[in-house]
Write a structure and sequence with these properties.
The protein has 294 residues and is of the alpha+beta class. The protein contains seven helices and 19 strands. The strands form three sheets. Strands 1, 2, 3, 4, 5, 6, 7, 8, 11, 12, 14 and 17 form a twelve-stranded mixed beta sheet that branches. A five-stranded mixed beta sheet has the order 9-19-18-15-16, with no helix packed on it. The chain is globular, with a radius of gyration of 19 Å.
């Protein structure tokens, strides 16, 4: 099942649906007993998911809507750093003394960084060092803690695509990395949440392109700490909730380690493609948001 969150115009309330090719079953109409947001649907459990899967009618054309992030406001976005062998090798080429991680390197992306799969990503005036990281995102479907490795896949609601946009100088200025990883619009997610009965997130080819030029390519089987290991590790310390997002890490080819460091600039188009999941595509724009206090 491919679950989406969508709006039909700029003023409409986001709705959730099931994507079939070029049509969406609008669950607010086809199954009005269900929760109206993705976190609520996931938290409602397997019976609610079965109802969504069986829903028919109330079709909306994909071309008539704007897809939003499948999970609009995750309670947690937990990301793994240096979690691909090739990406770690890039760092070792510059800093050979950097230790091999013995446990996952985890940082937070703030939930206000979430944006849609085709929405702009904003280049702030405070930095020119804007980088890209194509990544698989795992969405949690069940409230859980201390999940053993052998049961970790039971709590996976599905998979979606992420570009872990990063402001490198801000990242490196703070040991936690959170400041460089959490600017508004710097966590595009989508286009859909694809459930595990349709795809195995542990063996997915993916590529990232900037203006049509391939910059990254790998397969999720190259993860240093795989999906069960990340879930088990994280849930040892704290409870994972439905809708929480685990961003699993990126491979080699980031701008920071390329000759000349070709940072993203206004007008660049970044596309991340995952086998069986589709693609996201985001254009870099100058940050239009000034200071405000509501």
């Amino acid at each position: 099942m491919r679950l989406v969150t969508f709006t039909q115009d700029t003023t409409s309330t986001p709705r959730i649906g099931v994507l079939y090719d070029d049509n969406i079953v609008d669950l607010s109409q086809a199954a009005p007993s269900l929760p109206t947001d993705m976190i609520g649907l996931l938290a409602a459990g397997e019976e609610a998911m079965a109802t969504a899967r069986a829903a028919t009618g109330s079709l909306v054309k994909l071309n008539d809507v704007t897809l939003q992030s499948p999970v609009l406001h995750p309670q947690k976005i937990l990301a793994a750093g240096l979690n691909y062998k090739d990406h770690l090798a890039e760092l070792h080429a510059i800093n050979p003394d950097f230790p091999q991680p013995k446990v996952p390197i985890i940082f937070n992306k703030q939930t206000t960084s979430v944006t849609g799969p085709y929405a702009p990503i904003y280049l702030p005036e405070e930095s020119a060092q804007m980088d890209y990281e194509g990544e698989l995102a795992v969405v949690i479907g069940k409230r859980c803690r201390r999940v053993p490795l052998g049961r970790a896949m039971e709590v996976v609601a599905g998979y979606t695509i992420c570009n872990d946009v990063t402001i490198r100088d801000w990242q490196l200025a703070s040991q936690t990395m959170t400041m460089g990883k959490s600017w508004d619009s710097h966590c595009p997610l989508g286009p859909a949440l694809v459930t595990p009965d349709e795809v195995d997130g542990r063996q997915l080819d993916f590529k990232l392109f900037v203006n049509g030029e391939e910059r990254q390519t790998s397969n999720t089987r190259e993860l240093l700490f795989d999906i069960p290991a990340l879930i088990s590790h994280l849930s040892t310390a704290f409870t994972l909730e439905p809708g929480d997002v685990i961003v699993t890490g990126t491979t080699s080819g980031v701008a920071a380690f390329m000759p000349g460091s070709p940072w993203l600039k206004v007008g660049d188009v970044v596309r991340v493609e995952f086998d069986q999941l589709g693609h996201i595509e985001n254009t870099v724009e100058a940050d239009p948001v000034g200071a405000f206090i509501d």
